Amino acid sequence: MTRSNQISRSSCPVSCALDILGDKWTLLVVRDLIFFRKRYFGDFQNSPEKIATNILSDRLKKLEEGRILLRYRDPANARKVIYMPTEKCLDLVPPIMELLRWGAKYVPESDVHENLVQRFE
């Protein structure tokens, strides 16, 4: 089975999901898209994790190919691109919330985003 020119390791749903989302940067871009409503390339670059431009470009392209986000020209400025979450992207809210809860519980140096958890519950 191929997905965006990538061969899946198995047909297990966890493995298939990891084929799409299984790296640090992809989930952080999705996090920013959903929870922080980032829409422009520069918005994503300004995240605290400081993603490199080449990695960000690659992840945005893969997320678009996977139909997790949509890419539009900004009607107010045709030189800019706007990224919007799809329904497929928004379906990732519950698992990302669980990762947030897990990180807050088991990784003491992580920031606790209680207001974010409360906002989405």
Can you walk me through this structure?
The protein has helices at 13-21, 24-35, 41-45, 53-65, 87-90, 93-106, 114-120, and strands spanning 2-3, 6-7, 69-74, 77-85. The chain has 121 residues and is α+β, with helices and mostly antiparallel strands. A two-stranded antiparallel ribbon has the order 1-2. A two-stranded antiparallel ribbon has the order 3-4. A hairpin with a 2-residue loop joins strand 1 (2-3) and strand 2. The termini are far apart.
List keywords for this structure.
single chain; 121 residues; alpha+beta; two-stranded antiparallel ribbon; 4 strands; 16% strand; globular
Outline the fold blueprint.
Layout: E1 2-3, E2 6-7, H1 13-21, H2 24-35, H3 41-45, H4 53-65, E3 69-74, E4 77-85, H5 87-90, H6 93-106, H7 114-120
Antiparallel strand pairs: 1-2, 3-4
Radius of gyration: 15 Å
- Widest sheet: strand order? 1-2
- Classify the oligomer: single chain
**Separation, N- and C-terminal Cα atoms:** 37 Å
Helix content: 40-55%
Number of helices, where a helix is a run of at least 4 consecutive DSSP H or I residues? 7
Quote the beta fraction. 15-25%
- Molecular shape: globular
User: What structural class should be given to the helix and strand makeup?
Assistant: alpha+beta
Summarize the structure.
This protein is an alpha+beta fold and 121 residues long. The protein has helices at residues 13-21, 24-35, 41-45, 53-65, 87-90, 93-106, 114-120; strands at 2-3, 6-7, 69-74, 77-85.
